Predict the 3D structure of the following.
Amino acid sequence: MARRTDRGRPRRRSDLELPSVLVDLAADREPASDEFDSQQWARAIDHRMGGLLWSWGRDHLRDHDLKTRLLMHDLGVGAHLDVVWKVLGYAVSQLHGRGIDVATVKGVTAGARWYRRTGERPCSDVDLLLAPHHLDRAAEAVAALQPDHPWIPHLDALVASRRVQAVTLRVDDMDVDLHFDLLKLGIPTRGASRIWDRTLVHELPGGAAVRVLDDTAALLHFLVHLNKDRFQRLLGYADVQRVIAGGQVDWDLLQQDARREGIEVAVLRTLEAVLDEMSLPWPAEVPRPRGPRSLAWSLLWRPSIRLRGSEGRLRFRMRQNWIAILARGRGREALWWWIREFWPPEAAVDVRYEGLRGPYLWKLFRGRVQAASAHRRNLAALRRQKAATKTSDKAASH
């Protein structure tokens, strides 16, 4: 029976479900079937599963052309990851040289810690977390990496007032996201110092070192990030599985961390959605979430919006704001953040809509209208591209 989309158009179940081979690989088990053809290639790449597919497919796929495409893609990913490592090392050395402490989250260190080989976990950029005890040096940290960044004169005040939780820098033609709050939910992370105190040291290529989250905090971050991203890509599910499989997650501590932030329901429902999708067991130490917040979560993050790949990145973007609203005991903070988010700092408006002239209100209104129009065009272009790819693959298969 056809399932309906959020806009009322019928969508076949096959359009939403991923090939079982990809789900099995995300779950880190031998696929029950070796049926995988070129028509499914685009979905594998869109879900960032090309590396895991190649690790398995080089010995199991029978389609020579598909294997060649996977190999070439994997080589490209590996070359890009080499650049990411270099930019990460440079950024860390620049900041450490000034006595500024940072940790790296997700990214290439996640691939090195929980995946079997380079290339299985692609990433496009570098994510750094500024230490809680160095938040007063935010502008200095940005200046060390991108001296011409336009926010530098305003950044310390914006971070101190919690109006900005991250900033994107450009270092050697690569984005470096510098986070001032790990979870970036709008409401401040209450346990930031406790999480920082549990960070571990990870050695970088060349002998330098950087701090990384411990496995429990990393799992918390992956779950929150997956929830915020509307469960876009299957690789996010693979991240969760691999951290759990490492055997170092403290389930009591995970619940304490989530409960302290008021997001225990969102975190555990996300965990439940991931494990259920991959048919993996629920941890016996953790109670399944129930109650009104759990029901509200089910409605907001229902299965029909999950695992849409690039489309999910463009759609449902405002849904992440509800995580703070649903947080237990954080309603007033979340409401105040929503109000302030509607009226961003003038410095942020000037930078984001730098091509527009006029007073604050005009630039904010006009900039948002233009951004919404560009968003609609990007979504329409993505749908046309997907339709063209599907038509091309079908023609090639015949």
